[in-house]
Predict the structure of TVP38/TMEM64 family membrane protein.
Amino acid sequence: MAKKKNKKKLIITLIAVAIAAYAVHHFGLAKYFSRENLDILQNWIKDFGIMAPIIYIGLWIAACIFFLPGLPVAILGGLVFDPMLAIIYASLGSTLGATAAFLIGRYAARDLVEGWKQKNKHVQKIDDGVKKNGWRMLLLTRSVPVFPFNLQNYVYGLTDISLPMYFFVSWITMIPGTVAYVLMASALASGESPMQILIYIAIAGVLIVLLSLIPKFIQKSDMVEDVEIEEN
């Protein structure tokens, strides 16, 4: 009985994904998720007026669910909105998107994600790491590029980590990168003084450097046990 329900959920999910993917390509939205076309997407977002923040957050959610790159979306926020508002919108959108993928992996497409786990050694390490280290494994994988961001959102749905913990840790760990990329984009797009632009870039640079040091700090500390990370 349980297997039939899982199959039904999987079929419904696949149909929904197929319809959404068709819509993305039919309306020509896929091409906008590239760095070369950020200016096109920027104008498209602005045309929505007061609805622009909602559309932008929706783009983030779509990017997380459909394995689209998030960097162009983060940069877009810095180009379209005031820096502080862009950080808020990007943080909210990326966290909601990650949570949506987490819930799909846990409830709607569990069998499909299980298949991914069996084929990917890094994904298997996530499951093993959560069993040994709990939320600290999430903190580590959010900081190491060897674990694809969009894929791990789904995979964490298979683990024992709770939804509130996943939401909170994901939100906290994504803030530095979000701030860095938004500020860099804002610096390039702003008509402010050279000094203000340098301040934006300096803050972004410091955050990126700090992010690169987190994995080494975690592995050298006692925060995680028996987790080996192989960065390519």
Notes: Residues 2-220 form one domain. The chain is about 75% helix and 0% strand. The chain has one domain: 2-220. Residues 163-189 form the longest helix (27 residues).
